Amino acid sequence: MAKIKLTKNELKKQKDSLKMFQRYLPTLMLKKQQLQAEIRTTETRIRELLDEKTRVDEGFRSWIAVFGERGVFKPELLRVARVRTSQGNIAGVAIPVFEGADFETAPYDLLTTPLWLDAAVERLKRVLLLDLEAAVLEEQRKALDRELRITTQRVNLFEKVKIPETKGNIKKIQVYLGDQQTSAVVRGKIAKQALIREAA
Questions:
Q1: N or C: which terminus of the chain has fewer CB atoms within 10 Å of its end residue's CB?
Q2: CA 100, CA 123: separation in Å to the nearest integer?
Q3: How many CB atoms within 10 Å of residue 63?
Q4: Is residue 10's pLDDT more than 90?
């Protein structure tokens, strides 16, 4: 702890600091609550997406035997060309917001490929979209987690360190200044009695 001056100016400075800490603390606590709520919402949405992906995957199981046809379904048939995101803001934290994705489908001959290929490509797009949205939401959650950790540290710093320390400093300065004032009064009375004795 830094050494403090035992003066009236330092007392005013400490009182101003205490007011500032007490003014910012509720704002930080509100931000902490907002971040916690947003993290819970994001985690719920991620779980929903993963559950939906599981349902879509189960629907795919009926297609797996068909995918076994040689040379029909190739990995390069569908690829993600671009993931579209925008920038959002939650409690002062910049977060990515999933807007969608663009896919590129390799050309294939409609006459020689089975009819199910078009439906398979659409289902794959749906699964990829769910994965991509979950990945963006995970980035959001990580950004919110980082900010929550910083905000929690600040709340703890103000609540457990700065405010008690400042209150202690104020008390220490007030006691010292009170002692000085009492001492000055006593010295004044002693000096007054000495003057009375000399005059007598």
A1: C
A2: 15
A3: 15
A4: yes
Quote the percentage of the chain above a pLDDT of 90: 56
What's residue 60's pLDDT? Answer: 74
> Is 200 inside any structural domain?
no
Residue 48 domain boundaries? 18-160
Beta-strand runs (E) in 56-168: 78-90, 93-105
Query: Residue 165: pLDDT band by 50, 70, 90 thresholds?
Result: very high
Res 70 pLDDT > 60: no
Question: What is the band of 66 on the pLDDT scale with cuts at 50, 70, 90?
Answer: low
Distances (CA, A) of 28 to 32, 33, 157, 159, 184: 6, 9, 11, 11, 44
Note the Cα 102 to chain centre separation in Å: 30
- Distances, alpha carbon 50 to alpha carbons 144, 145, 189, in Å: 20, 20, 83
The answer to whether residue 34 sits within a structural domain is yes
What residue ranges in the chain does DSSP mark as E strands?
78-90, 93-105
Dist CA 8 CA 164 (whole Å): 20
Tell me, yes or no, whether 118 lies in a domain: yes
pTM, full prediction:
0.76
If one counts the domains in the chain, the total is 1
**188 within domain boundaries:** no
Q: How far is CA 44 from the centre of its chain?
A: 17
